[in-house]
Design a protein that fits this description.
Blueprint (H helix, E strand, L loop, with lengths): L2 E11 L5 E4 L8 E7 L2 E9 L7 H15 L5 E2 L5 E2 L4 H11 L1 H11 L2 E10 L2 H11 L1 H10 L8 H31 L4 E5 L6 E10 L3 H15 L3 E9 L11 H4 L1
Helix pairs in contact: 4-5, 5-6
């Protein structure tokens, strides 16, 4: 498919035209460059007009360009797969910058000198956590023992109730453990986003917006937490990345044309 659109990566302040190497999104090989208007610029590359698959390869290529740009500029990340696909994509991009210049300038000011850092915490031994819940909750332990040896079909509702009790207790444990992680880190951060937890063993998946000057302090606090938790909790520390969880640029081309 011939290149006839422009794939968007991010928005920056740059009155000058810039290039950032080659694009690999969708196996493309076009140069990554800026389209500028009145001091603002969108970082783009030539692109076929299509819906890009949300594959790891494409996502990593998208993020790699953003991280390259981030070495020099404060940026506003644009959602993966955004393509200007009209007969005049350059004109549409300049209209976008003109129509939303105030919004973009305010966001860039808010993000100036800041980075996103992420913490994902999980229990190392999930079975041990469930055993701990049973041992520390007499009602759960009593109901579990009463169901031992009884046929599942005859105790369906009791077992469902037991499952709900364990789930509630796990949620309380998670909230307590998560607070012990998030609170000391949030004192260093400018903003915090708690993301959805999708597995029982995950305690928290939280993003922090941090001033670059305070990143070493954040690093030290993560290390202190990791040392304190020992074999009970593992921390996965992700950074430094663009502010994906603090900026959400959605573009509706129909509103621009």
């Amino acid at each position: 498919m011939a290149e006839s659109g422009k794939y968007l990566y991010c928005i920056i302040r740059s009155p000058e035209n810039r290039t950032f190497g080659a694009s690999q999104v969708g196996n493309g090989n076009g140069d990554v460059h800026t389209v500028s208007h009145d001091g603002l610029a969108v970082v783009v590359s030539g692109s076929p007009v299509k819906q890009f698959e949300n594959t790891r390869t494409n996502m990593m290529a998208h993020q790699k360009v953003q991280e390259t740009v981030m070495r020099e500029f404060t940026l506003l990340p644009v959602r993966f797969g955004t393509v200007a696909n009209s007969e005049s994509p350059m004109e549409d991009i300049r209209k976008l910058l003109s129509l939303r210049s105030v919004e973009f300038c305010h966001l860039l000011e808010d993000m100036e000198g800041k980075v996103e850092l992420g913490i994902k915490a999980f229990w190392r031994d999930e079975k041990a956590i469930f055993s701990e819940i049973v041992e520390k909750n007499p009602e759960i332990r009593k109901l579990r023992n009463s169901l031992a040896g009884k046929p599942p079909a005859a105790t369906h509702f009791e077992r469902a109730h037991l499952g709900e009790m364990v789930k509630d207790a796990l949620g309380r444990n998670r909230a307590k453990e998560a607070a012990g992680i998030i609170q000391p880190l949030s004192r260093i951060a400018c903003d915090v986003r708690e993301n959805e937890v999708l597995a029982d063993r995950v305690i928290t998946n939280t993003s922090f917006l941090v001033d670059k000057e305070r990143e070493p302090e954040f690093d030290r606090t993560v290390k202190e937490l990791d040392d304190r938790f020992g074999d009970r909790i593992a921390l996965k520390y992700v950074g430094t990345i663009p502010p994906y969880n603090f900026v959400n640029i959605v573009i509706n081309w129909d509103e621009i044309r």
